[in-house]
Amino acid sequence: MDIELLATTAGDHEEMLGIFNYYVENTTATYTETPVSLEMFDSLMCFDQDYPALTARDDDGVMVGFGILRPYSRIPAFEGTAEVSCFLRAGYTGMGIGTTILEELEDCARQMGISSILATVSSLNEESVRFHIARGFSMQGRLQGIGQRRGRRFDVVLLLKMLD
Description:
Layout: E1 4-7, H1 13-26, H2 38-45, E2 53-57, E3 63-71, E4 81-88, H3 97-112, E5 116-122, H4 126-134, E6 138-149, E7 152-162
Parallel strand pairs: 4-5
Antiparallel strand pairs: 1-2, 2-3, 3-4, 5-7, 6-7
């Protein structure tokens, strides 16, 4: 499948929210228990005009995924570090779309002078942990048992990728 990566616009957020809320309702990939509003989604994603946010669209213009980079911290010592989030529409995993989004975000990060990217993933989302490790992230630690979702305790897995 051919996909086109586009810079995210404010008009895309509603469609992105639909993808995100699918994971809220049907998986343990998110930290939230119930679907979120558009305002809450924007707050959770921490969109920053100085950092890239991308949508992936198929040949028919359907949004099949999105990814964003955001500052890890506003403290100057960490300006070379960003955090990444990526979500794919249900039924579109395993097709290379997530890899394509991640690679483009990494290229953008390099151009911005970012040298390290973090991903924080629920330990209940083993597929995402495997995805990141297969793409060069290394596990740096776990915040054990700090979350609870659907009555299950989970760890936050800290993953890091150093960029060339």
